[in-house]
Description:
The structure holds 2 protein chains of 2 kinds.
Chain A: H1 6-22, H2 26-44, H3 48-68, H4 73-107, H5 122-137, H6 147-155, H7 157-160, H8 168-176, H9 182-215, H10 222-253, H11 271-277, H12 280-289, H13 300-315, H14 320-339, H15 341-346, H16 349-368, H17 372-382, H18 393-401, H19 403-411, H20 416-422, H21 429-455
Chain B: H1 22-35, H2 38-54, H3 73-78, H4 88-94, H5 99-124, E1 130-131, E2 136-137, H6 146-150, H7 153-164, H8 169-180, E3 193-195, H9 203-215, H10 226-234, E4 260-263, E5 266-269, H11 277-292, E6 297-300, H12 307-310, H13 322-332, E7 337-338, H14 341-346, H15 363-377, E8 387-395, H16 398-403, H17 406-409, E9 413-420, E10 425-429, E11 437-439, E12 463-467, E13 475-480, E14 497-502, H18 510-516, E15 521-525, H19 528-533, H20 535-540
Parallel strand pairs in B: 6-7, 6-15, 13-14, 13-15
Antiparallel strand pairs in B: 1-2, 3-4, 4-5, 8-9, 10-11, 10-12, 12-14
Helix pairs in contact in B: 11-13
Amino acid sequence: xxxxxxxxxxxxxxxxxxxxxxxxxxxxxxxxxxxxxxxxxxxxxxxxxxxxxxxxxxxxxxxxxxxxxxxxxxxxxxxxxxxxxxxxxxxxxxxxxxxxxxxxxxxxxxxxxxxxxxxxxxxxxxxxxxxxxxxxxxxxxxxxxxxxxxxxxxxxxxxxxxxxxxxxxxxxxxxxxxxxxxxxxxxxxxxxxxxxxxxxxxxxxxxxxxxxxxxxxxxxxxxxxxxxxxxxxxxxxxxxxxxxxxxxxxxxxxxxxxxxxxxxxxxxxxxxxxxxxxxxxxxxxxxxxxxxxxxxxxxxxxxxxxxxxxxxxxxxxxxxxxxxxxxxxxxxxxxxxxxxxxxxxxxxxxxxxxxxxxxxxxxxxxxxxxxxxxxxxxxxxxxxxxxxxxxxxxxxxxxxxxxxxxxxxxxxxxxxxxxxxxxxxxxxxxxxxxxxxxxxxxxxxxxxxxxxxxxxxxxxxxxxxxx
Amino acid sequence: xxxxxxxxxxxxxxxxxxxxxxxxxxxxxxxxxxxxxxxxxxxxxxxxxxxxxxxxxxxxxxxxxxxxxxxxxxxxxxxxxxxxxxxxxxxxxxxxxxxxxxxxxxxxxxxxxxxxxxxxxxxxxxxxxxxxxxxxxxxxxxxxxxxxxxxxxxxxxxxxxxxxxxxxxxxxxxxxxxxxxxxxxxxxxxxxxxxxxxxxxxxxxxxxxxxxxxxxxxxxxxxxxxxxxxxxxxxxxxxxxxxxxxxxxxxxxxxxxxxxxxxxxxxxxxxxxxxxxxxxxxxxxxxxxxxxxxxxxxxxxxxxxxxxxxxxxxxxxxxxxxxxxxxxxxxxxxxxxxxxxxxxxxxxxxxxxxxxxxxxxxxxxxxxxxxxxxxxxxxxxxxxxxxxxxxxxxxxxxxxxxxxxxxxxxxxxxxxxxxxxxxxxxxxxxxxxxxxxxxxxxxxxxxxxxxxxxxxxxxxxxxxxxxxxxxxxxxxxxxxxxxxxxxxxxxxxxxxxxxxxxxxxxxxxxxxxxxxxxxxxxxxxxxxxxxxxxxxxxxxxxxx
Lengths: 467, 544
């Protein structure tokens, strides 16, 4: 099921909220959440839902065994078993086709390419179970004794299919006992509406521009290529951070406090900072679990760095362009590391902004093109060698036709909402009431407008469903 | 960022003792604090400052702001007050609400109200089944089957059905087109909006598209079913059944592109150019002539579209020239007579010869083209006095379905056709030239939606046969796309027999067919877009 569907917003969600509100005990609330989460997942994956249950079961028992046989050989077996199981699951369901294709190409053989459909959200929930098992092994968290509670952690529908990757430690306590205040509900609903609006009102509309400009890259001009990459980058940001907003908002309505997944990434001054603000739950996952793997010996600082960016790339999809995309960022992070923080700060701010935005938006171009021929053409165009001129009339018309949309997208890349809420205008008793009422009105209008817009969008899955 | 948390010599996240409630919060706040930028620190300080000043009044204010550093404090300050957390909501309802609580309550209440109102609206009201403006049937409720369920199609289908059949759908669609979409930006120059892909220098893109079109087999799936044809002919069923089921608006493949420009309330399909495929078309038609020999006249009358006549001068760059491709085609015919519809239409460009809201022409345009053809074929041609003019109001054609443009939906036009005063016998065959049934020259528009009027001429997946009152022994076979549908009723004073066949829906060998019906004349007549992208059908039809 997709959040950006009327079916979800006006049927599934109200039923879920009402049922959730009717039961009182946390245990019962958890049962309600599990049932609705399983329905939610099974709606899109009626068969793969059992794969998710299997994964939850295996990792649950692994957690228990690691704790019971602490210090024993069995602990290591349980730990390694779970890790191998999780990675194998990803390997089989996400990468087998890609691996076989490349082996075939490399050795000139033709092993039949397995035709396995990617289960929705497997990349997200597998990373959650992985982090859980590692945390139990590292004794950062206690193993969950109740399978029901563990299943809730794995399948909680707000974050199940497109993140954020919630750490077990984040909601460990809240699974068993949590309080929901009216402020939580109010905040959560507003946050959900905000996320939905980002997706429906901005990302979906930007996607039209991006597809026009990048979809016909053979004919795109220099300005058109930049314009397209820019629109596409913004589209992904509003799409994915919108999804995270909905997840965080719904989580809050149910009493869970998830960590932020995006913190206005485009205000970054360098690439290192970009990744501290973009898809935070993924980059911290790699930082905590992959970066310092002792497999590179003395060179592990750089080896780890390489591995992290390789993983980041390949996590996004079983395709070479994603791998290149990941390593591309790795190179810039490496360069920035070599230059050093102090020296970076000496570079004028304007230049740092131009540099980082250029790298980021060219990066999104790499993200867009799975076809290398087209990617090559994109690079030609972006450096003014595409042979289609500087700017075309169609670019100008498209830009005029979308000028307000683009302006809004750019403005909302900045933390404008926080700025307004924290400004002097909104402090003090009276303006607090006013702010709250304005927020309510804006929120209700956004929800209504987004809903009407959804009448026109029969299929528009979130981009991160692919991962 | 990677080496930020490397204080631990083992380079692992710090191992901590487990304190049930606060551990996670402490760890989190630690991580977050490490990563905080200067700006966020400032934001946080500001928040704390606000909090301090308001704390006496509102002990639980600012919870809505995302600040992890507050978390460790929360349980301590709140727990004593509300020991039973699940009941906190209820407890608060009973207590006199603080101001902040009241505001949150109002906010949550309003949003919940919208959700519940939407829930009730979508659940209770009768659902739409057809979208006339988009010219399609809406998604149907899926039928349950185990395989359908296991593949996920059934559940997805239910959700699609729910989303597609919103009560008063066209009202909302109109609101999107008229209110929301124009908010995206401003019109360019003389009021131009573009819909679809990029247009200039379409050479490579078009070659790619052509390649994909030519490899695709004729696909009837999104088109009208045979049962719909017969029922429409006998006029027992409402023409609603002629709507395709697919989500895409009805359009004949290859006839319409997504590159549409709206200017002066008129939709113009921007032409990407033939880039050599016009010669392939000419070759295929030449092959018909070779196979048929001198006893049969073969004509080609490829029809320019509105873009040739109504694209403002300063936007000429956006479209390739149809005229150039027509000329290039004309030069490549061997024994095939080229009929110059372009010049005939150009002379009347100030009349209503093309629809503004539809990708087809008006029958008035077809009249001038038919006249040019009749001259080329050396047959008589009737003046307007032989026809009754029928005018339908409120026509909004296919362009709206493709562009959702307010300029189109809010500016309907007239749909005009010409009914011959003399009787014409009509038979409708299936696409294998079997199962004839009696038909009408024009399908009744009475129950048609106002976007469908062009269907009055003919449906595409049928062979239509006209027997006229003319006794000149001339039998004409027209191979056409839907542009050609407007022609036969204008040629009933010119030919004794007319067969109307669509190149895309033709299941028998075309040469055999032409010989079987003793045709004296064969006319290929379709728009430029079809001729340069659907020409493979023409070839396939002689290889069947």
